[in-house]
Amino acid sequence: MTSFETGTFLNRIPFVKIGSGSNPIVVLNGGQAFVRRPTPAHAQRDAKRIARLLPPHRPIYVLGYDSSPPPGYSIHTIVKDVERILRDETGPASVMGISFGGFVAARLAADHPALVKSLILMVSAHRFSSEGRRSVDRQIECAWQGDFEGFLKEFGLVFRRPWLNWLLRLRFRQERERLHETMNDPAIIVRGLHAVAGDDFGKDPSWLQAIQPPTLIVGATRDPFFDVEAMEETARLIAGAQLKLFNGETHMLPIERARDVAKVVRDFL
């Protein structure tokens, strides 16, 4: 039976550990980690979903983010936190960044190559598409205004399968009255999104050339946040990077095609 352990690193970074042993995999979660109030149940559910994509015989650490990010919180702040965790807690690891977490994972690999054995960017790239950039800007505006319903609508029809989008809309309607209970403080959401989506983010991609570990980029051709052009540019600038695109899939590729994605990831690792 797989073991689950929850806790915090640095007294402020929540994590879920799955399994035990050596040769760990560290996973940096997506932007939803900023959005909803963290609960052990949500953290463990996300960890189980992520574990399905990874080899079962290696320990997995799924990291969250600072629950009270300070003013001036930036991607460099997050990278520094993760660097300390790998150096002092887990040891060097394979690192997978999902969505926004890919920004952190790639920067970590560029700045601290000795700590990153291999790098996986899952439905991510070094920058957003134009559509993705506009959507994140609208999310920041809605969060700042406390308009949680508008914020969630920005995720739109994110699944490829229509029935999953119907279930998502139904869930939003059911949770409408409880949004202020389940969503994080607007200031925390805004600081988190600004950290991974600052105004100058993605303008100079030359730092990608400093990434040395073997790299896999897994993406979808209909992803509204990271388009094919962005992923191809990321792969081109990282020496030896492998790019696997799933035709017709969306940003929810790791959920809708979990088994196929897992095969690609496990073959790479």
Write a structural description.
The chain is an alpha/beta fold. The protein has twelve helices and eight strands. The protein has a single domain (4-129, 187-268), classed as Rossmann fold (3-Layer(aba) Sandwich), CATH 3.40.50. 44% of the residues lie in helices and 16% in strands. The protein has an eight-stranded mixed sheet with strand order 1-2-4-3-5-6-7-8, with helices on both faces. Strand 7 (215-220), helix 10 (228-237) and strand 8 form a beta-alpha-beta unit. The model has no long low-confidence stretch (mean pLDDT 85).
Quick one: CATH class? Answer: Alpha Beta
Q: Strands across the major sheet, in which order?
A: 1-2-4-3-5-6-7-8
Averaged pLDDT, please? Answer: 85
Total number of helices = 12
What would the principal axes of the Cα set say about the shape? globular
Helix content: 40-55%
End-to-end C-alpha gap = 23 Å
Write the layout of secondary structure elements.
Layout: E1 4-9, E2 13-18, E3 25-28, H1 32-35, H2 40-51, E4 60-63, H3 75-90, E5 93-98, H4 100-111, E6 116-122, H5 130-144, H6 148-153, H7 162-175, H8 179-182, H9 186-196, E7 215-220, H10 228-237, E8 242-246, H11 253-256, H12 258-268
Parallel strand pairs: 3-4, 3-5, 5-6, 6-7, 7-8
Antiparallel strand pairs: 1-2, 2-4
Helix pairs in contact: 3-4, 5-9
Summarize the structure.
The protein is of the alpha/beta class. It has helices at 32-35, 40-51, 75-90, 100-111, 130-144, 148-153, 162-175, 179-182, 186-196, 228-237, 253-256, 258-268; strands at residues 4-9, 13-18, 25-28, 60-63, 93-98, 116-122, 215-220, 242-246. Helix 4 (100-111) links the parallel strand 5 and strand 6.
